[in-house]
Design brief:
Elements lengths: L5 E3 L2 E3 L4 E2 L3 E2 L4 E3 L2 E3 L5 E3 L7 H12 L6 E3 L5 H4 L2 H7 L4 E4 L1 H11 L7 E3 L5 E3 L4 E6 L9 E5 L4 E3 L16 H13 L3 H11 L6 E3 L10 H12 L5 E8 L5 H15 L3 E6 L5 H10 E11 L2 E2 L1 H12 L5 E8 L6 H8 L6 E10 L5 H14 L2
Helix pairs in contact: 5-9, 6-7, 8-12
Length: about 375
């Protein structure tokens, strides 16, 4: 399916090491921007400031002698907005399109709200480019308050802002799910209620393609991607299985986690395991939301939960972790309190059930704690 009047003018960033200053992106990331060619042409969103010159050259290459009439600003995060001032200088007759919050942020970033050359739109407002009719649909907190998406009523195309985005440059051939899931739960995951609201709004529209701000254009089997977003934003597990997340100082807690892994495998349970001190934490978070159950194995450390485990749990809680079963393995040579503190951390989470068996290890596994591990495996495999 092709859309001849929509041209890609974005860029691939292969040099970035951390997205948003914390997400490891070994395959880079794309900053997507599109030109809608019509009687009046419109550019949708900008790119990271370091690529402003490349972006402007891309626009000129597509439009030739024509000038864009509009820059539509769906999202103000700097990886999309930092190039806006350069665009405004190059195309002084272009109108900037956004909502009230958009222009407040523009003023904060650039010291100007572009009075006299802006179009402030409301939720559901339309804009005609000629043949192409655009509708602006507000999507606050997906995942910033000013976010809106733009629906091309003529071609049935959704310019979806950060929704349906993924890590990785556009020349990377990988399965969409893994990096889209990691992107969603890392960045958007806290705002499931708002994503559900947007999905409800969009259900009224026929959508033939989704053009996100990161990752590939989605043209085929759109129901698959929309259903993934429905599962993720409703905090519904995708797979009935167990993630074992552990931290270990001298190897004894690791041994317990690996033993639980073996026991669950023997029971034909889908199971994954990660060392929180050494794994990509954002992938661990994504896996915790993908699977229906979570087993946490950690030590008491300075009268608290081991730091990497504590941070991992905080990441889950702040992203509204819910609808899951949790099992706990705690290790402590003296005064173990990790299990008690873990339970307290999840008090704010909805629909969390804990396994009846807490595995308690005093320094190293013994016959008693091994037997408890088997009981926990039975519980987690139900």
């Amino acid at each position: 399916m092709t859309f001849e009047n929509i041209r890609y003018v974005g860029v691939n960033d292969r040099d970035i090491d951390l997205f948003e200053g914390m997400y490891v992106v070994p395959e880079g990331v794309s900053y997507n921007s599109y030109v809608i060619i019509d009687e009046k042409s419109a550019v949708t969103d900008g790119v990271d400031g370091g690529f402003a010159d490349v972006w402007l050259k891309n626009i000129a290459a597509v439009l030739g002698d024509k000038k864009p009439a509009y820059l539509i600003i769906n999202h103000m995060e700097p990886d999309h907005s930092a190039s806006i001032f350069a665009f405004a200088e190059k195309y002084p007759d272009a109108t900037l399109v956004g909502n009230d919050k958009t222009f407040v942020m523009l003023s904060e970033y650039f010291g100007t709200a572009f009075e006299g050359r802006r179009l402030v739109v409301t939720d559901g407002e339309e804009l005609s480019l000629g043949k192409t009719k655009l509708k602006f649909v507000f999507a606050p907190m997906v995942h910033w308050p000013e976010v809106m998406v733009t629906y091309d009523e003529t071609d049935k195309v959704l310019f979806s802002a950060d929704a349906f985005g993924k890590f990785g440059t556009l020349d990377v051939e990988d399965k969409w799910d893994s990096e889209a899931r990691r992107y969603y739960f890392g960045i958007v995951g806290k705002y499931g209620l708002q994503v559900q609201g947007l999905l409800k709004k969009l259900s009224a529209y026929e959508i033939r393609a989704i053009f996100p701000l990161h990752g590939p254009v989605l043209r085929e089997n759109l129901g698959y991607y929309i259903e993934k977003y429905n599962l993720w934003s409703s905090y519904t597990p995708e797979v009935d299985g167990v993630l074992i997340a552990y931290t270990s100082v001298y190897g004894h807690t690791k041994a317990a986690a690996e033993k639980l892994y073996e026991e669950l495998k023997d029971r034909n349970v889908t199971v994954s395991i990660c060392d929180l001190a050494r794994s990509d934490w954002s992938q661990c978070v994504a896996s915790a939301f993908q699977l229906s159950k979570l087993a946490l194995a950690t030590t008491t450390y300075n009268g608290e939960i081991f730091p990497a485990m504590r941070e991992f749990i905080d990441c889950l809680v702040e992203r509204n972790y819910k609808n899951r079963k949790i099992g706990i393995i705690e290790n402590g040579t003296w005064a173990p309190v990790a299990a008690k503190l873990i339970r307290a951390k999840f008090e704010k989470c909805k629909n969390i059930t804990f396994a009846e068996t807490d595995v308690k290890i005093r320094s190293a596994l013994n016959d008693e704690s091994l037997a408890a591990l088997k009981v926990l495996a039975d519980e987690m495999s139900k």
